[in-house]
């Protein structure tokens, strides 16, 4: 069992072994835990402040008039958004008591609240597990069959960070459905829960 903020779920990554995608075996089990880094020093506080200054609009009409969309040549949501705000939290330019991620269990009402720093750290650990543990690389495809739990978002951001294409699947998928998706997508890996893993084994 792996626990995140007290919410327990089993996450098992399966590596596809042959081209037909019919033989699947467990390749990696990993735990994701939240840790807090203290006294982080960031030398480019001024640069971060300037980069984030555009998010404060004292004069809406003036901002609207002068606004122009700057499209970067390369953009990665994990690096350019999550990590940027995480850096802002480290140097005190953003409050850490205002969560960037807030999840509530619809049945138990249990909550998971994370700062940008925590979300960045979790996604980096998962990305490392996918790349180092499962041998995935940029451009590979991964099928994720999970219920509406925090791990779904964590894995999504991790895939963006590592350049891996995520293919979401509903928990209603069964053996034939999973086989069909694996065959068409040519996915290199699949992540699901223990309750659904036997459908993957049968695919």
TrEMBL record:
GO terms for cellular component: mitochondrial matrix. This is medium-chain acyl-CoA ligase. The keyword Nucleotide-binding applies. It catalyses: a medium-chain fatty acid + ATP + CoA = a medium-chain fatty acyl-CoA + AMP + diphosphate. It comes from Candidula unifasciata. Gene3D superfamilies: N-terminal domain of ligase-like. It is an enzyme of class 6 (ligase). GO terms for biological process: acyl-CoA metabolic process; fatty acid biosynthetic process. Keywords: ATP-binding, Ligase, Nucleotide-binding. Its EC number is 6.2.1.2. InterPro entries: AMP-dep_synth/lig_dom, ANL_N_sf, Mitochondrial_ACSM.
